Amino acid sequence: MASLDEFSRERFILAALRATGRVSVADLAARFGVSTVTVRKDLEALERKSLLKRVRGGAVGLGGTDEGAFELRLRDSRESKIAIAREAARTVHDGDVVAIDSSSTAFYLAREILDRRNLVVVTNGLRLATLFMEQSSAMVLVLGGILRRSAASLVGPIGDVLTSRGRIAKGFFGLVGLSATHGLMDISGDEARTKWFMTQACDEVYGLFDASKVNGFGLHSFAATESVTGLFTDSAVSQDFVTEWKRLGVPVTTVVAGSHDLDLPLKP
Questions:
Q1: pTM: predicted TM-score of the whole model, two decimal places
Q2: Are 100 and 230 members of one domain?
Q3: Which residue did the predictor score with more confidence, 151 or 248?
Q4: Domain-located, residue 208
Q5: Where are the alpha helices (DSSP H) in the chain?
Q6: Residues 32 and 138 occupy one common structural domain
Q7: Sign, CA torsion 247/200/147/116
Q8: N or C terminus of the chain with fewer C-beta within 10 Å?
Q9: Residue 195, class by beta-carbon neighbours within 10 Å (0-12 exposed, 13-18 middle, 19+ buried)?
Q10: Cβ burial 126-141 (10 Å sphere, 16+ → b, else e)
């Protein structure tokens, strides 16, 4: 295998764990062409992100499915996510009240609207809340709950927090999968439940996702098809997909990613 950087090695390790449930240090070192010390450091980093459990001679999966650590997701399909975020940002204006979830694409959206005046942001994303705190004048409402370290989010029964507090103009949500039958879906039940409460308070609900999510596998619906206002994705989606959702009354906005987007730093 050609030499891989740290990010690529981590992605390979997680894929191997999903496929087999266990990886060995010796095998990974041979595959990557690196030392066993380097592999152990990779495994330690992934364990700190709660993505695996180290055992003697290697590591095992945690027995559940997760969409991956936030830092890894920020880098995955980055060009597409930035382009999608820029297009979705056109719908956010000064004085808006918006809900933005903890997804990586939504984080890129947040970076695009830092200059909006008198913005009110409702979020369950810790990284996103920190970004607004440090780089904007927006009023930020952080929804409480249990910390999900891998997603850098807070999840839980937040219905009472939003009930009778007024309406949120627009909500922007990442997703793991979507379908005409089940709407927008997530893999985590806790995350989906939190997003559901958020969508119930929104006048408009938008899905933000790169084309790979069209065939994604989601277990829990958080927004029924009829409640979705619009979808933002990249031009790699098929025309059949666009036509299907248009038939359902949901417009799909597609964007073309550009390599110039790579000059943006990952850190807030």
A1: 0.76
A2: yes
A3: 248
A4: yes
A5: 6-20, 25-32, 36-48, 70-75, 78-89, 104-112, 126-135, 159-162, 189-200, 239-247
A6: no
A7: positive
A8: N
A9: buried
A10: bbbbebbeeebebebb
